[in-house]
Design brief:
Layout (H helix, E strand, L loop, with lengths): L5 E4 L8 E4 L6 E3 L5 E3 L3 E6 L7 E7 L2 E16 L8 E2 L22 E3 L12 E15 L4 E18 L17
Length: 180
């Protein structure tokens, strides 16, 4: 996880009880080898399918385990790290990975983005993209009480290098007629 244990408060009881638990940070993949994307070409982001499931995690109060929580991922947001561009809310099936055997048009595009500018002049020559997951959490305490917890978020930062490729049209050989 990205930080210390998150402090969660029972959202329905009106009590001041504070419970501690950690939701895992997303493991993010892109179809581009080494997270190297090409300008003007759609790029895909997805969450590790092993991560897109319910997690059962211990709940602590005052440093003592008092129960177990079921944390269910409910949605994914992708912020490509481009100034002035809003984050993209991905479909609920954001765990559906890019499949290199399928044509580009047949891929799930809910978590896809097109970079129009190279990252060459950005700090460290990368876009610092953020991917976060929102979790629905319900704790079951050892005494049998069921405690709904405010939704949680976890996030991962991904460095994406975007390269620009210049095309060259040749007017020799079999392409000569196209240039006339």
């Amino acid at each position: 996880p990205t930080g210390p244990e998150r402090l969660l408060t029972d959202r329905n009881s009106g009590s001041d009880d504070v419970y501690e638990l950690e939701v895992p940070d997303p493991r993010v993949f892109t179809e581009a080898a080494g997270n190297r994307w090409i300008t003007q070409r759609i790029g895909y982001v997805w969450i590790d399918p092993a991560y897109w499931q319910d997690f059962h995690i211990p709940v602590f109060k005052g440093g003592v385990q008092v129960g177990t929580a079921a944390a269910r991922p409910i949605n994914v947001v992708f912020d490509p790290g481009v100034d002035g561009v809003e984050a993209i809310g991905c479909d609920d099936d954001a765990a559906l990975p890019y499949d290199p055997a399928r044509h580009h048009w047949d891929q799930d595009k809910s978590c896809a983005f097109v970079y129009f500018v190279s990252s060459r002049y950005r700090p460290s020559q990368v876009y610092r993209a953020r991917v976060w997951v929102r979790w629905d959490v319900v704790a079951t305490l050892d005494d049998g009480d069921v405690v709904p917890i405010d939704p949680r978020e976890s996030e991962t930062v991904v460095s994406i290098r975007v390269e620009e490729i210049q095309s060259l049209i040749s007017c020799v050989g079999r392409n000569a007629q196209a240039c006339r």
